[in-house]
Amino acid sequence: MEKFSSFSDKTTGISPFLPTPLHPTLKTYIFHTILIPIKLFTMIPVLLISPLLTLFPNTYKIIIDVILAYFFNLSETEFAIDGVRRLDEKIKISKSPRNGDIIIVNSTGPLDIFVWKMLSENPKNVKIGIANGDGIGIINNWISFVNWCFTGSLNLPNEAKKNIVHITDIDATSSNVDGVSDLKKFVGENGILYVIVEGTITNNKGILSFPRGFDVGAFAKMAISCNYGFKIMSLKVLPTGISNTVIPTNFWYWIFLNFGSMSMNLKYRIKMTVLFDKYTKNGSENVDPSMITDTLIRTILANNSRLKLLSSEMDVKKKREYIQAVLDSREKKYV
Ligand SMILES: *[C@@H]1O[C@H](CO)[C@@H](O)[C@H](O)[C@H]1NC(C)=O
Ligand SMILES: *[C@@H]1O[C@H](CO)[C@@H](O)[C@H](O)[C@H]1NC(C)=O
Ligand SMILES: *[C@@H]1O[C@H](CO)[C@@H](O)[C@H](O)[C@H]1NC(C)=O
Ligand SMILES: *[C@@H]1O[C@H](CO)[C@@H](O)[C@H](O)[C@H]1NC(C)=O
């Protein structure tokens, strides 16, 4: 571990790329081996009728909920919106991720997309954007997202490489407007775009610097000028580690651990801040787009805790170096 100390944050000491060590016991192995076939068998009816039920957004959400709870031990999704009372269901629904919203998020692993779908006005409209130096790579297909998670979430999936939205400075009259038309093309009027702004997955400990060249403030201005809503959502999963895929993770091992258990105990804690609500009547609560900066978004994403903001060299590039260093050291061990 000492060896990799250059990959922890200088000021806070946080190591955002270190996976939580898991030590499944023999009992877990036996238990899960017995339970997985039983679970699969009892799920067959649900899986068979689900294509039909996904036609309706609300039943679609219930199915996702059931599958997450039953297959993945997800017992609770706690969803709070800044400035909205916990029990005020009506306002909560009106502020939740709606059609035509862009939501800046941090990501923990493959289950995130299903949780995002569950929270959104219409799960079918959910798209994922991955921030990188060139802009935002958009994916429509949940399988691409899940693959990206298991491969260490370092490189854009092929689907995203084809659908890049370049960030256009809408204030500069001379700049090209390709970004604007691509955003409208790839997200559409009713799309709900979740942008993984760190450009990768971390282990729940801190917020990375955003990929070099990715100007989230300019993106916010561009998005709002195209009539999208703009929100920030921070995600935490407890207990950390089981469902998290911070480094390349074996799919079957992950499935084995996450699929097998009977009692439910995985929890998502989600907090959202609405910066620009496109559905609000008078707009007085909306933040002036010119005030939306990289720092503002990072601070809100860190749930307003400056302790969680990592220094500028801690970013997706650093994670790439970390994973390379781990691979190299393994190779050395075997020669
Ligand atoms: C599911 O819940 C049980 C009981 O709380 C726990 O022992 C087990 O580790 C959990 N499994 C997962 C994958 O969260
Ligand atoms: C954000 O902070 C509040 C308290 O300030 C806490 O209750 C909540 O769980 C935090 N949310 C996340 C997603 O960390
Ligand atoms: C706008 O809405 C807010 C709350 O939603 C309210 O407090 C305020 O009075 C409204 N302003 C106008 C001009 O209607
Ligand atoms: C996402 O951000 C929240 C708030 O700062 C934090 O509690 C959580 O651990 C972060 N999750 C990941 C995977 O980095």
From TrEMBL:
GO terms for biological process: lipid metabolic process. It comes from Pichia californica. This is Phospholipid/glycerol acyltransferase domain-containing protein. Keywords: Acyltransferase, Lipid metabolism, Membrane, Transferase, Transmembrane, Transmembrane helix. The lineage of its organism: Eukaryota, Fungi, Dikarya, Ascomycota, Saccharomycotina. GO terms for molecular function: acyltransferase activity. The chain crosses the membrane at residues 29-53.
